[in-house]
Design goal:
CATH class: Alpha Beta
Order of helices and strands: HEEEHH
Shape: elongated
CATH architecture: 2-Layer Sandwich
Number of helices: 3
Helix content: 25-40%
Number of strands: 3
Radius of gyration: 15 Å
């Protein structure tokens, strides 16, 4: 399961590329859901999310980012994954969690 969730972040063109954190292995899942209304789904109303864990081999942190009714984009990988990366990077530094992967010059 960890391997599949790592691919969501690491594989080229995957939906969670924006959740990558240089020097750390990240596993996660994006989510996009249409909001329910009284008579079915509500047109144009969405919830975008990303949940991830880091570092993958010995997780020290799990973060869930949920964006209710995002305004410009609706996909979790576009809206919530970048927020996950910012929050998790700060928290890893605060907790003193050392990197578990060599830092690269660019993220996927």
């Amino acid at each position: 399961l960890k391997t599949m969730l790592t691919g969501v972040v690491d594989e080229h063109g995957a939906t969670g590329n924006a959740a990558a954190i240089a020097g750390y292995s990240v596993a996660g899942k994006t989510g996009t859901a249409q909001k329910p209304g009284p008579h079915g789904y509500t047109t144009g109303k969405y919830v975008a999310s990303f949940v991830g864990m880091v570092p993958v081999k010995d997780p020290r942190l799990v973060v869930l980012v949920t964006v209710d009714e995002p305004s410009s984009q609706i996909f979790g990988g576009v809206v919530a994954a970048p927020a996950f990366a910012q929050i998790a990077k700060f928290d890893l530094q605060y907790l003193g969690v050392p990197p578990d992967e060599p830092a690269t010059t660019s993220t996927p």
